[in-house]
Amino acid sequence: MQKLLYSINDKPPFGLTLLLAAQHLLAALGGIIAVPLVIGNVLKLPAEDTIVLVNAALLVSGVVTIIQSRGIGIIGLRLPSVMGTSFTFVAAALAIGFNEGVSGILGASLVGSLVMIIGSFFMPYVRKLFPPVVTGVVVMIIGLSLIPVAVDWFAGGQKTDPNYADPANLAMATFVLVIVVVLVQWGKGIFAAAAIVIGIMVGYVVALALGWIDFSNVENANLFALPQPFHFGLSFPISGIIGMSIAYLVTIVESSGNFLALGNATNTEITGKHLRGGVLCDGLGSAFAAIMSTTPFSSFSQNIGVISLTGVASRYVVTTMGVLLVLAGLFPVLGALVVSIPMPVLGGAGLMMFAMIITAGIQMLDKVERSKRNGLIMAISIGCGLAVTTRPELLHKLPEFLQEILGSGITVGSLLALILNLVLPHEKAEVKEK
């Protein structure tokens, strides 16, 4: 177990809590607004409709994050879990949107959320399928799948960007990375706990001095925006409901893996009760998102890296981050200001955060018995998960429903680890390697 600066029920001083909450916000905000932006752009929605999707995503992310972290009755994980819009649903959403519009996406999402809501009550049985060898593999694949995202941030955007991997971008990202490493290793108190946000703030100031910051989005953002429930209406295409239901099944697997990784990062043993509350919150949160005019939700794995790196596992910090997200949804100018942070500045911190999740997976697998059977589970699951992550075109000629199920390396690796653990026989006299 790693040493935590703040455990799940610790309450740092208010000022520090606010700073640490901002740290989580910086790690998550780009991912939260990316899905509604992609859907709005691909479907060529009017700018005002895309803004409705984005504002609702921020607001609902905040509300669901608060519930997931604090809990209400049987709902919620009661761990520092950040919730946001999920890319798992993008393919299904676009397929529905081209034929039925946004109303079809939201109607199918609302009905499909029943898959997670009902499925959550079976999670105590599912938990038994995750022995240490499977859990370790899942955690490791989560980290490995996030590395390409961090690398793109590090390089300054997407491969198609003209300044991708420009030496200036790499220098800025490296500068921020060095600051984070120094603060984590040698910093004390607030400097260690807030290493990521301090590194990003220093990088932002340098980027501002270099003239890298584009404030156009801040200038164009509304100061205040009210949520707009049922803005697009709801329709219920059968084929769309089926597609969304499949995406929700995939999300159950991914969220379970994230919750197990979060348990490792917070030194908490994840039980079936935890998984039930977490997945139930996922499902209800996605239903709420459809009503509030945005796309479905799941837990964010990148914020697990923040906890692993800083040792700050307080759920009150993440609850405060949820309040900041609600404010960002009500005051879009705040979200626009965070979005103005250059990609290389985020990349310097992101690479370190996501690599820490890989390290956690390695440490978990190091405690697993070394045998031929366990070696096969690790090798095949991690290898196939990485194959899909690094070469997604591998699946392009498969039927659409299979692409939907197997489109995530985390899902492929997790499912293979689960299946192989059930299928491969235990050796009667397994010899441990020295």
Description:
This protein has one domain (14-365). The protein is mostly helical and 434 residues long. The two termini are 23 Å apart. It has 18 helices and two strands. The protein has a two-stranded antiparallel sheet with strand order 1-2.
Short account of what is shown:
The chain has 434 residues and is mostly helical. Helix content is 69%, strand content 1%. It is built from 18 helices and two strands.
Topology (SSEs and partners):
Elements: H1 14-42, H2 47-70, E1 83-85, H3 90-119, H4 123-126, H5 132-155, H6 167-186, H7 190-193, H8 195-209, H9 216-220, H10 238-265, H11 272-291, E2 297-299, H12 302-310, H13 315-330, H14 332-339, H15 343-366, H16 372-390, H17 400-406, H18 409-423
Antiparallel strand pairs: 1-2
The 3D shape can be described as globular
Q: Approximately what portion of the residues adopt beta-strand conformation?
A: under 5%
- Residue stretches low in confidence (pLDDT < 50, at least 5 long) are none
Question: Over the alpha carbons, how many angstroms does the gyration radius reach?
Answer: 21 Å
The average pLDDT score comes to: 92
The total of beta strands comes to: 2
The chain-level structural class is mainly alpha
| C-alpha end-to-end distance | 23 Å
Number of domains: 1
Helix share of residues? Answer: 55-70%
Largest sheet: 2 strands, antiparallel
Strand line-up of the largest beta sheet: 1-2
Number of DSSP helical runs: 18
Order of helices and strands: HHEHHHHHHHHHEHHHHHHH
